[in-house]
Amino acid sequence: MTTPCIVCGWTNCACDTDGLDVGPYVPQHWPPPWIGRRAAHSSEGQASPRVCRRWCGLVQAMRDICCLAGDSLQAKAAGGPVLAAETGGTLMRRVIRVFPRKTTASPTDGLARFDLPTLWEHPADEVRVSVAFDCDKARAEQMAAEWRHVGPVTVGGPAYDDPGGEFEPGMYLAHGYTITSRGCPNHCRRCMVPKREGPLRLLQIRDGWNVLDNNLLSCPKNHRQRVYAMLRRQPRRARLTGGLEAARLTQWDIGHLVALQPAILWFAYDEPRELEAVTAAAMLLQGAGLMRNNTCGCYVLIGWDTDTMAAADDRCTAVAKLGFFPQAMLLDRGIHTRDPKAWRAFARTWANKVIVGAKCAQLRDGVGT
Ligand code: SF4
Q1: CB-CB contact of 35 with 1 (8 Å)
Q2: Would 171 be classed as within a structural domain?
Q3: Is 188 in the pocket of ligand 1 (CB under 6 A)?
Q4: 239: domain range?
Q5: Residue 98: φ, ψ to 5°
């Protein structure tokens, strides 16, 4: 019986008029991910994989050499060991993370992927497809189907209501980002966080200068103190970008923030009734000299069913007048409004940094309304 080639899967390969041959080259991995299922199934039960004598054998050898060399570089870039030779004989698991969308927060190591697998992809122990946004689910599922040829696939992330566990630096977010708590003690009616992550949970504090906690200021004082201490030893100025709850900002926190001199602080203004708390926070920040050069931003939630563009514009203008740099956050891409397209266009006028910067400059110069 003729053994099919593991590269092309044919018993009579076009690249070898003599038919198949047991080449001297034995591939590193069987079955390799790039061969079709037909070849894998048709060779089941064979004692050893075979390749065509001419082109397929050469291609196969080049692929394995490239994969092994690539892994070595990837392991170094990721800080995650892959090859036994590099780890004193301990073979570590090779976990590829796949993201349907690349953002500034995406990991940058050699095992992060943002597309379908290439022919050169080395087999993995595990492939994790991580999805942050609902609108990326369809693409994520398509990617998951393709990545199954590389290793066992799991699909998860915030879009799939994953409550999240301990934070692993560099795994799903780029180096520098950190999360020290999950969940939230509040129950804001339009927010998914309490439903997805439950009540506030404190995590191990891992190093990073960009803190993404949902509600850092709701954490106990000793936890916040340890977070501020961690931020002080970072090589870059702190960035608190998760959205701070204005009502929980205290003079004690201001003292730590003055010591830190953060590069940016983002507050959240989700409900119209929170304006008083946002105003009080602005007073504290201004009094401490922290509100300068657009270092304090404010996410402004807009676009729920009873919201209007005029009211949303007023809220964004109000926080800009307080000295914050507003950033409109359109709820669920405007699906609760009557005209999502018009709301998306409106939201851009309060989300584009250049436009918002110009509006803020006008308001501060007293030219605006
Ligand atoms: S909007 Fe903010 S404060 Fe409200 S529940 Fe969500 S995370 Fe908590």
Answers
A1: no
A2: no
A3: yes
A4: 177-365
A5: -115, 130
